[in-house]
Design a protein that fits this description.
With about 375 residues, the protein is of the alpha+beta class. It contains eleven helices and seven strands. Strands 1, 2, 3, 4, 5, 6 and 7 form a seven-stranded antiparallel beta sheet that branches. A hairpin with a 2-residue loop joins strand 4 and strand 5.
């Protein structure tokens, strides 16, 4: 989704009459302070499967906070937001700040670009006002009090576009860039409602769970018997490592020319490597068809090698998401019989060091 901040170069007086009113209406260039995205998750019904648009970490985290505030320790003040209502909010905040809690144009601040008096109240009310969760909580606080009318307008909305308009006029106090806000809300609603239930997997070519070797890759990847490595031939060095399996399985899913060996020194830091690469996404939420890496049990070995596996499925568990992974080198010796599949929960993976879910963006276009 394209951010509209550059418009501020041409519209310096936009909404000038509202300069002393609630959140910033002007679309000025914003200063973003770099910060690590929080650890977050969405219910599996909002999981990002193959073919779905990749959402920014900030938007995905904020969506979770709006729809599941209790999980974040956020007091919703007795309010409940539906995906349609949340899409109206997200559409506006994309335009206002790109979901950066540290965005500022000098006089307005945060994800909603609150003006001086409202921002001062937020700063006084929360220990760390720059946390995304603090600002989400403040939205609930305002919607339950001074901006109750905005909540009621959201509740009466019948489409993402009308929800975006309601939030713009009643909460942002702004009638500018309504089309952009409505379009962003439509995309957000599609993101939130694409998976109305159940889990998701990337393709019909699911990884088998009833075999312990790699012969099932024979027809597509020329890995038919021990000693054959297919497209990513290690020349027998190291055997059938998890790194080799990740490359081979992703090539099998997305095309033989879709991935090249990045040559990192270990498998556990591949997600960190992806975070530094253009064209890759690395974050805290799983995507079927992508991968997971890190150090330590239950994912795999600890430093210095770590482990990488492919995310085959994402489903809703009893408390958060759970994933099915497929991988190689289960026994740690690179043997032909080291293939495996395994289900892991969000809670189980919470102890893994440097846990990252990552994928190449072009795989899902």
């Amino acid at each position: 989704m394209k951010r509209l901040w550059i418009l501020g170069l041409f519209l310096p007086g936009l909404c000038l009459a509202l300069l002393f009113l609630a959140p910033l209406c002007a679309l000025s260039l914003l200063e973003e302070a770099s910060s690590s995205p929080p650890s977050f998750s969405l219910p599996a019904s909002y999981a990002s499967c193959g073919g779905q648009p990749s959402k920014s970490s900030g938007e995905t985290a904020l969506a979770s906070m709006l729809l599941n505030p209790g999980k974040w320790g956020i007091n919703s003040m007795g309010l409940t937001l539906t995906p349609l209502m949340a899409s109206g909010i997200l559409g506006n905040l994309e335009v206002e700040s790109g979901f950066s809690p540290k965005a500022s144009n000098g006089s307005h601040f945060g994800i909603a670009q609150w003006d001086g008096s409202r921002w001062s109240r937020l700063v006084e009310s929360y220990k760390d006002p720059y946390l995304l969760s603090s600002q989400a909580a403040f939205i609930f606080e305002e919607l339950s009090s001074d901006f109750r009318g905005a909540y009621l307008a959201l509740k009466s909305a019948t489409s993402p576009a009308s929800a975006a308009g309601a939030f713009a006029l009643k909460y942002e106090i702004c009638s500018q860039a309504l089309f952009e806000r409505e379009e962003e809300a439509k995309e957000a609603f599609s993101f939130l409602s694409s998976f109305s239930g159940g889990g998701c997997s990337f393709s019909n070519s699911s990884a088998p769970s009833s075999i312990s070797n790699y012969s099932w890759m024979c027809s597509s990847m020329r890995v038919c018997k021990a000693g054959e490595f297919g497209e990513f031939d290690w020349q027998g060095k190291g055997g059938y490592q998890c790194y080799w399996y990740w490359l081979t399985r992703e090539a099998m899913l997305h095309g033989k020319n879709s991935i090249k060996n990045p040559g990192t020194p270990d498998a556990g830091s591949l997600g960190l490597w992806a975070a530094s690469q253009r064209g890759w996404t690395s974050g805290s939420f799983p995507r079927a068809g992508g991968a997971v890496s890190g150090f330590g049990s239950p994912l795999g070995s600890g430093p210095p090698f770590g482990h990488v596996a492919v995310v085959e499925k994402v489903e809703q568990g009893s408390s958060g998401w759970k994933i099915e992974i497929s991988g190689g080198n289960f026994y740690g010796n690179g043997s032909w019989n080291g293939y495996y599949t395994q289900w892991l929960t969000e809670a189980q993976l919470s102890t893994v060091k440097d846990l990252r879910f990552f994928w190449k963006n072009s795989w899902f276009k």
